[in-house]
Amino acid sequence: MMTKADVTDMIRAAKREKGVNWAEIAAAADLSEVFCTSACLGMNSLLPDTAGKVVDFLDLPAEAAVVLAEYPTKIFSQKVPTDPCIYRWYEITGVFGEAFKELVQEKFGDGIMSAIDFDMDIERIAHEKGDRVQVIMSGKFLPYKSW
Amino acid sequence: MMTKADVTDMIRAAKREKGVNWAEIAAAADLSEVFCTSACLGMNSLLPDTAGKVVDFLDLPAEAAVVLAEYPTKIFSQKVPTDPCIYRWYEITGVFGEAFKELVQEKFGDGIMSAIDFDMDIERIAHEKGDRVQVIMSGKFLPYKSW
Amino acid sequence: MMTKADVTDMIRAAKREKGVNWAEIAAAADLSEVFCTSACLGMNSLLPDTAGKVVDFLDLPAEAAVVLAEYPTKIFSQKVPTDPCIYRWYEITGVFGEAFKELVQEKFGDGIMSAIDFDMDIERIAHEKGDRVQVIMSGKFLPYKSW
Amino acid sequence: MMTKADVTDMIRAAKREKGVNWAEIAAAADLSEVFCTSACLGMNSLLPDTAGKVVDFLDLPAEAAVVLAEYPTKIFSQKVPTDPCIYRWYEITGVFGEAFKELVQEKFGDGIMSAIDFDMDIERIAHEKGDRVQVIMSGKFLPYKSW
Amino acid sequence: MMTKADVTDMIRAAKREKGVNWAEIAAAADLSEVFCTSACLGMNSLLPDTAGKVVDFLDLPAEAAVVLAEYPTKIFSQKVPTDPCIYRWYEITGVFGEAFKELVQEKFGDGIMSAIDFDMDIERIAHEKGDRVQVIMSGKFLPYKSW
Amino acid sequence: MMTKADVTDMIRAAKREKGVNWAEIAAAADLSEVFCTSACLGMNSLLPDTAGKVVDFLDLPAEAAVVLAEYPTKIFSQKVPTDPCIYRWYEITGVFGEAFKELVQEKFGDGIMSAIDFDMDIERIAHEKGDRVQVIMSGKFLPYKSW
Amino acid sequence: MMTKADVTDMIRAAKREKGVNWAEIAAAADLSEVFCTSACLGMNSLLPDTAGKVVDFLDLPAEAAVVLAEYPTKIFSQKVPTDPCIYRWYEITGVFGEAFKELVQEKFGDGIMSAIDFDMDIERIAHEKGDRVQVIMSGKFLPYKSW
Amino acid sequence: MMTKADVTDMIRAAKREKGVNWAEIAAAADLSEVFCTSACLGMNSLLPDTAGKVVDFLDLPAEAAVVLAEYPTKIFSQKVPTDPCIYRWYEITGVFGEAFKELVQEKFGDGIMSAIDFDMDIERIAHEKGDRVQVIMSGKFLPYKSW
Amino acid sequence: MMTKADVTDMIRAAKREKGVNWAEIAAAADLSEVFCTSACLGMNSLLPDTAGKVVDFLDLPAEAAVVLAEYPTKIFSQKVPTDPCIYRWYEITGVFGEAFKELVQEKFGDGIMSAIDFDMDIERIAHEKGDRVQVIMSGKFLPYKSW
Amino acid sequence: MMTKADVTDMIRAAKREKGVNWAEIAAAADLSEVFCTSACLGMNSLLPDTAGKVVDFLDLPAEAAVVLAEYPTKIFSQKVPTDPCIYRWYEITGVFGEAFKELVQEKFGDGIMSAIDFDMDIERIAHEKGDRVQVIMSGKFLPYKSW
């Protein structure tokens, strides 16, 4: 039975062979780069039509589209990440996490930023002292209810 | 000896008593809300002048400015956060962490987004289906060097 | 500075001294038993008016109402619980957690049951072979969005 | 030797192939959805007759019924769950666990809600602001004995 | 507010001062040694009358009886025990735990030995090659139910 | 090279195929049920003659008797057990472990109950309110020596 | 109530003040250095007479002898030790632990070296290339029994 | 590529088949039993000549001698050992570890016992109350240097 | 799909077969020993040309050069290392880590030593009392910025 | 009883009050900056004369010199460090640890770099693209011995 991990491997192999990148796959599927990449890595589901576009673009078997459309069980490591590129983001959440909570709740009241009704964008910003990575995240505010 | 934790307690007490918020403290110190809040929580150091402005605005003792200007040892919990407001951000880094690395390195080459030459902004964005939290992060790209 | 933990201690002491129970406190505050108890234990915030009713009913100092209305940082242990009454619930989530996900997503599509727009009720149900504990939980379904 | 994990894989494959869902399997076995799903996932045993109904409905080999009727060793992860659908339930037990104990023991005396003499139901409840997941759990109260 | 830990300390101090042992305290309370000791250590509650007998026998303040009658939150360490006397028991449960499950379920069917409707006795048994510790545990069998 | 785990699998397969139970295997080997089961699960070694009786009774290959007679490396999980049948025993050791130490050392002096010179028996005891599991453990007392 | 930790502190203070060392304390108590030191550190109990000799030699209060004669709960850290002097011993048990088991059981049969009927000695051995630490441990062999 | 683990398996198989023991292997290699056993288990390297003697004695392929002479990466579990024979040694290091440090540094000054310039011997000592395991360890003392 | 782990295995096999060492591989690639070794172990990427030199020198397949040039996900164990050669470095970072921070920030101000713009060299230094390992590390200082 | 932690606090307070830095304290004691700082932080012992110089320079009480000369128990956290300045060094040991072992043992044979006969130096090196932190470590090579 083909799994999401199998499909991720197929996508990586097709990427290397065809010399395409995530931006091109996302464009073929009419999706943002971040969401499309996360779905190809098995962390989100695609609508059947969108899954078909990814599979067509990369010449994968049809069953791969079925698998991309299934609802994933999201599993990620809870250990401190070791890869420096991911660790730096982890460090930022450690250093600024409490400030984030203070400011969100100061601006909105008691509640949270949704991680479900959520989107994110990553861009390269040219800068004279060295180009910068820009990440924009946006999530719906959800207030606590009492009853 | 007055510690950073002592000063954070003083700031919280003054905030409650005076009815000021983080945005007003940051404005008094000519700083962004995120950086100022993180420094008041003990996770960053302020320049002596800036520290003085915070202390004056909140009527804290002069020694508090000395402490705010000291270089902190940044200590944060590595356990999974339990507060829902902070957990949701943690969940986002778990779900999208690998996609972040894929896209940063696709756009820039082998390297990382700096967590030191870094800034962040949090805003409330009005939206008809419910207002949204927007977070913008920007860090300098640092390429690996060989030797 | 009076903390949520201080107020919880005051409430427990007043309960013991006055011989009142959680049901009576909740009734005085026009709240459900579960929500009111969780707020008294420091895991939720009360609206200022409601906080005042709790404080009046238990003859606590006025500052306690201010504290009950503050937004808590929810901290709970992530270790396996040892108290048998709480452990059994934990065991149930372990045994039935995957079935819960299968059935929620079969009935609703890819998404989650909200833990924010959520309520819960606990009742004693008479039964000839021994009375039963009944727990009813209700949370809004939140679908994942793509972008 | 066919294991419970093997049978779960067979059931998932048959579900996908035949396009049946958990509700239909449970109906074929005259069981509730929650109990039947948990047994198919290897967390409970079925009576031999009931196991036979599941196996017949899904056209599995006869040995699968023997395995479904065996007594399982219930193994589940004690780490914080990462899938958001399961995590939210985990968060609820963390936030309301102590309140649960307070109210059960206020209503019944010193003791616990059984996790063995126990049942659970999950329903979709229509709601104008968005449909809701409703979970009803019921367990026999067991008092502590002294001796 | 007097806690269970406070009362345990009072009991230990009174034991040392009066030179009484657990067997005598249990006899004064008309309880088994194991249950009485566990309650004095804060792991079980006593009925109010029984608590009064313990308090009278040891000349403790009346409030101690109230505390002994309260329902405890049972907290014990989940780390491997280091004291050799307790470790050996832990080792036994590790070496024979699976055999215990095999034999209980072979004799009774799918289910468990209750830890709530449960009693235990510890005796010194004279033996020519060295006296032996004998532990007898008895718990009600609870069968799983399907629904 | 045939391992203890291989032999345990062979024993389980032979048990299922022949329809014999642990009690019958133990009787064939002239051993108690608990010790024989633990040795078949790889946690104890059998004398060569006894191992031969188990192997003959279950029609296993001769090499299996050699393996059953080897000295095992006893490996068991130190995590909190999740199976409810084993967890309840674990809970009992947590709730009563300190009381066990208090009473053993009150009756014998400073020392321990041996886990090596040790035996255990598990029986079904008929009871009008529901049959009970009875566990009897006996271990030699070993006093600490000074030097 | 004076604890073993209190007495260890008293002994360390008296050692520093009087300028005596562990060898002299052990000689005063007619004990080996290792056992006497471990008892003073709270990891073993002394007979009342021996405890009295330690207390007399160091001019401690009489109650300290009562405490030294009590049966300790032996608590030690299960984390990897960080002090280099203790870590090296830990490393030796890691590197040679399996070889130890192989050779003990080759020489004696299935069983263990007792840690209760046990003694140890530490000596300085002069050596031309640098003096050496010599540790001699001796424990009774305990064979497993079947039943 | 043949690994150290492969060679350990070959040695165990040859031991069982030829009926030789560790003492005989060590004698063939002109090594102490402890060092030779530890090298055969992959925790130390042998000189090429010595490795050849082991390989010849056990009729292993020539490549095995190359592997026995390679420098190992020493990997051992940092969890509490579960096998009783190894656990007892672990317990001894926990109970007497601090006393060991006190006495080594009292006899030598600030420094450690080397685990590199180190040897160990294990012997069976006849004793009327039961034979004893004797372990003698010897390591060079290494003083700390300042600079 | 050939992975970095596969290529590391190929390099180790070629090293053993050809009898070359890391210094020779580094020389063939015009790289420092430390960087070249770390890249061969999968912890850094090589430029395509440099990767080709390594592959040519060791007669590996051409695809190995593609893999050596890919950007690695750096994964390393966060447990305490057990191999003594690596542990000693770990111990040094534990003993001197805080002093390192004190002195770097005393010399440079608030900030860090970069681990990205970084190089390291390892040399054997002859010494009459025994040769010494010398490690020289150099990293760019990165100051914190406020905003 | 004054502890090493007490003395570290005294030194930090005197540093702040007198406006001296670690370099000046080290110069007063005729020690390297790294060793002197580590001893002031409680991780190494000073000779009595040297300890006296530190205490004189900072006007601390005489007992502080006694404490600085005592042999410390070196305790450091084994968790992943969170402060970025220390984390970057930790990351380096993770990324380059295996390469370090490969190269040390290629240059010296089977053995380790001593962490006891060891020294370290930290310098600021001017550089046109930004000044650099240089760390030089030197430790005696210790070969494994067989026996």
TrEMBL record, chains A, B, C, D, E, F, G, H, I, J:
TM spans (from-to): none
Xref: InterPro entries: Cyanase (IPR008076), Cyanate_lyase_C (IPR003712), Cyanate_lyase_C_sf (IPR036581), CYNS_N (IPR048564), Lambda_DNA-bd_dom_sf (IPR010982)
GO MF annotation terms: cyanate hydratase activity; DNA binding
Top EC group: lyase
Active site: 88, 91, 114
Boundaries of every Cyanate lyase C-terminal domain copy: 75-147
EC number: 4.2.1.104
UniProt KW keywords: Lyase
UniProt xrefs under SUPFAM superfamilies: Cyanase C-terminal domain (SSF55234), lambda repressor-like DNA-binding domains (SSF47413)
Reactions the enzyme catalyzes: cyanate + hydrogencarbonate + 3 H(+) = NH4(+) + 2 CO2
CDD domains from the UniProt entry: Cyanase_C
Keyword match Flavoprotein: no
Record family assignment: Belongs to the cyanase family.
Cited function: Catalyzes the reaction of cyanate with bicarbonate to produce ammonia and carbon dioxide.
HAMAP family: Cyanate_hydrat
Protein name per Swiss-Prot or TrEMBL: Cyanate hydratase
Protein's organism: Croceicoccus pelagius
Taxonomic placement: Bacteria, Pseudomonadati, Pseudomonadota, Alphaproteobacteria, Sphingomonadales
